[in-house]
Write a structure and sequence with these properties.
The complex is a heterodimer.
Chain A: H1 8-54, H2 67-99, H3 106-128, H4 142-150, H5 152-164, H6 173-197, H7 204-238, H8 245-258, H9 274-286, H10 288-302, H11 313-335, H12 338-344, H13 348-378, H14 385-417, H15 424-460, H16 476-485
Chain B: H1 3-31, E1 36-39, E2 45-48, H2 57-66, H3 120-123, H4 127-135, H5 137-140, E3 153-157, E4 170-171, E5 181-185, H6 187-196
Antiparallel strand pairs in B: 1-2, 3-5, 4-5
Helix pairs in contact in B: 2-6
GO molecular function (chain B): electron transfer activity; heme binding
Protein name (chain B): Cytochrome C oxidase, mono-heme subunit/FixO
InterPro entries (chain B): Cyt_c-like_dom_sf (IPR036909), Cyt_c_oxidase_monohaem-su/FixO (IPR003468)
């Protein structure tokens, strides 16, 4: 929003926002800070996992670091540590801002954060000592996952309370998504854990419960938070409203209706009743509806303003993420087609796809959100725009390399496996260069994460300059000149006010 | 009813619908399915699938879970005309729901860094092969990227050890070691290989529509 701090009405708004931000400070910093810790640990585990796949002798003698344990340890730390904790941080801040109220229950939320950290730590430890469940995305023992899901009752109660006491009557689409996410996640997590660990479901129904859950962790937990953030920050940074309110509501309900049903496409060709696989494929195709509505809406909001990505770190990360959302969703729907699935299933192609979702889409948006939120919480600036640049380029280039290498490699792997004349060992050997490319890509991404962690550390220690205007990639003057040259208003990334 | 309760209701309704559709209804459809007795060509009857024994096979399945073999190996054979699972000799027929009725949870897997193991008991009956392979896959399969599981063995160099009753003692190939070396699996190693010995999906089985 274009703000003139001298306008008295605006000045009151500025003060009000500062009060809300201050109320969220400790809580959100705790969830954010913890998420960055898990991001670093998750990246280390990822590198170990990746290297083991082309150099099996690496750290091979330690049972607790065997491939089949570090791989799930990586997945669970990044999903429940990094992605979920950064998501909750953004969720709390956005809810307070959009409801225009101070964040309630601060002590409780700090306790919940500590509890969440403890549970993720215990769960990861249990995987490494051999008590993981070997059920993908649900590897924590049930006595860790149930308490993790149950603590969400606090978040549901909190969001309900915030929505009921909100001072801004209009419900923005971000609030819909966030509220949906807080209800969906605990329901999924607890229901899936109970069904899989109790006799309530038997045989292959446990496998469908597994994929109903695993697909929806992305679809009904991380996706809504990512979209809520994109819906908030893109218009905020650009200083113009979202293109269409109605499209955003259609996008929300079609996501709620269709995403749920797509999970069984992970089991195509498997030993299921035939109709179940058909349902999964239809659900995947219907996903074109929410995806296209969101893509159109964001694109039309951005149209004519893409040049602002040069200046604003928040915008750059979030637009990268929002574009990845379109790509990953289209790819996901296509993967449910039999002829694509026949080749891509059981290969690294799927792994590439999963990272396009959780990393390229969700995590890039989470980074962008944190670049916006943290300075407003701490009232200090990011210490270095160079480190932000390193962060962006290392992660963006790393991610693209990751995706291209493994998608391509995985496709070849699938074609070779589907040709019975090719000995299996040839497939194994053929994959090695692609697996190396993944380790290099992963190293790049880890470099990005370390830069980010340094920035966050210095931010929390308040080493930045007092917040006067946001850190941009170029100086304010360059930006203004560039903007004048293209007849655009000066970058409206906003000062403290927005 | 206000806006907030309306959203909450809609959100819950959609996810509950899919829980029914994708998990509870299929479970209802398959629940009554259990092991079946089958007349074999020689006149005897076999029960399929059979329970794992609680002495070695069931603990072996726990080792399979604990070491995360599922992240590289699937246990499901796709139908003819969809992939080349049957042509590769990974099974004589596609896998069907009945194959999994006793497995809690089934390790169907989603990744094939290594070959499918649904029928490994028939494909590789040699225990000795399995022990050497598990100790270091490069012994039996040069170029393999499967991790070695040396921690599932006791190793003795020089003189042949005395293995406890029922535990095999296997010499490592001379090309692999300088001095004569023997390996004896630990309890867990032996259990794991016993479990692999149960992995087969035999007989003609009906598909479920």
């Amino acid at each position: 929003m274009e703000t003139d701090p001298r306008d008295p009405g605006r000045a009151a708004d500025v003060r009000e926002r500062a009060v809300i931000d201050r109320s969220a400070r400790e809580v959100v910093l705790l969830w954010y800070g913890s998420s960055v810790f898990w991001l670093l640990l998750g990246s280390m585990l990822a590198l170990v996992t990746s290297i083991k796949l082309h150099t099996p002798g690496f750290l091979a003698d330690w049972e607790w670091l065997t491939f089949g344990r570090v791989r799930p340890a990586h997945l669970n730390t990044v999903i429940y540590g990094w992605a979920s904790m950064s998501g909750v941080g953004t969720l709390l801040w956005l809810m307070a801002r959009l409801c225009k109220i101070r964040l309630p229950w601060r002590e409780g939320l700090i306790l919940a954060g500590i509890y969440w950290n403890a549970m993720v730590a215990i769960g990861t430890f249990q995987i490494l000592v051999g008590n993981g469940t070997s059920i993908e995305w649900l590897e924590f023992p049930w006595w860790v996952s149930i308490p993790l899901g149950v603590v969400f009752l606090v978040l549901i109660a909190l969001t309900v309370k915030m929505l009921r006491t909100r001072r801004e009557k209009h419900l923005y689409v971000s609030q819909w998504y966030l509220f949906g996410a807080t209800i969906w996640f605990p329901f999924l997590y607890v229901a899936a854990t109970v069904l899989i660990h109790s006799p309530a479901a038997t045989g292959v129904a446990k496998a469908t419960a597994n994929w109903w859950f695993a697909h929806n962790v992305l679809g009904l937990w991380l996706t809504p938070i990512g979209l809520a953030s994109a819906y908030y920050f893109i218009p905020k940074v650009l200083g113009r409203p979202i293109h269409s309110y109605y499209l955003s509501i259609i996008g929300f309900w079609s996501l709620a209706l269709f995403y749920n049903w797509a999970g069984t496409h992970h089991l195509i060709g498997g030993p299921l009743p035939a109709w179940l696989v058909t349902v999964g494929t239809v659900g995947s195709m219907m996903m074109f509806v929410p995806v296209i509505t969101v893509a159109v809406n964001h694109h039309l909001t951005m149209a004519g303003h893409f040049s602002k990505m040069r200046f604003s770190p928040t915008l750059r990360f979030i637009v990268f993420g929002a574009m990845s959302y379109t790509v990953v969703s289209v790819q996901g729907s296509l993967t449910a087609l039999r002829m694509v699935n026949e080749v891509g299933h059981f290969t690294h192609y799927t792994i590439a796809h999963a990272h396009l979702g959780v990393y390229s889409f969700y995590s890039m948006i989470a980074f962008g959100s944190m670049y916006y939120v943290m300075p407003r919480l701490v009232e200090r600036e990011w210490v270095s725009s160079r480190l932000i640049k390193i962060h962006f380029w290392a992660c963006a280039v790393g991610m693209i390399m990751y995706w291209v290498g493994l998608s391509f490699g995985g496709w070849i792997q699938g074609l070779m496996m589907n040709n019975p004349d090719v000995p299996f060992m040839d497939v194994v050997q053929r994959m090695i260069p692609y697996l190396w490319s993944r380790s290099i890509a992963g190293t790049l991404m880890t470099i990005g994460h370390v830069s980010f962690a340094i920035l966050v550390w210095k931010m929390i220690r308040r080493e930045g300059a007092w917040l006067v205007e946001p850190t941009l990639f170029v100086t304010r003057k360059d930006a203004r000149e560039a903007a004048n040259a293209s007849h655009l208003p000066a970058p409206a990334t906003g000062g403290h006010a927005s | 009813m206000n806006r907030v309760s309306l959203i909450a209701l809609g959100v819950l309704a959609t996810v509950i619908a899919s829980l029914f559709g994708l998990v509870l209804i299929p479970n209802f459809q398959l629940e009554s399915m259990g092991p079946r007795s089958i007349q074999q060509p020689d006149g005897s009857t076999a029960v399929y699938p059979a329970e794992l024994d609680s002495y070695l096979e069931a603990p072996g399945r726990e080792v399979y879970r604990d070491l995360g073999c599922v992240y590289c190996h699937s246990q499901q054979v796709r139908p003819e005309g969809f992939g080349a699972d049957i042509e590769r000799g990974w099974g004589a027929r596609r896998s069907v729901p009945r194959d999994y009725v006793l497995q809690s949870p089934p390790f169907m897997g989603t990744m094939r860094t290594g070959p499918d193991l649904a029928n490994i008991a028939d494909r590789q009956p040699s225990q000795e092969w399995h022990y050497l392979h598990l100790y270091d896959p490069r012994i039996t399969s040069p170029g393999s990227v499967m991790p070695s599981f040396k921690f599932l063995f006791d190793t003795t160099v020089g003189e042949a050890p005395r293995a406890p009753l029922g535990f095999p003692m296997i010499p490592l190939p001379e090309t692999y070691v300088d001095e004569p070396t023997w390996i004896v699996p630990t309890e867990r190693g032996r259990a794991l290989i016993a479990y692999l010995g149960t992995l087969r999906q035999p007989f003609e089985m009906e598909e479920v529509q």
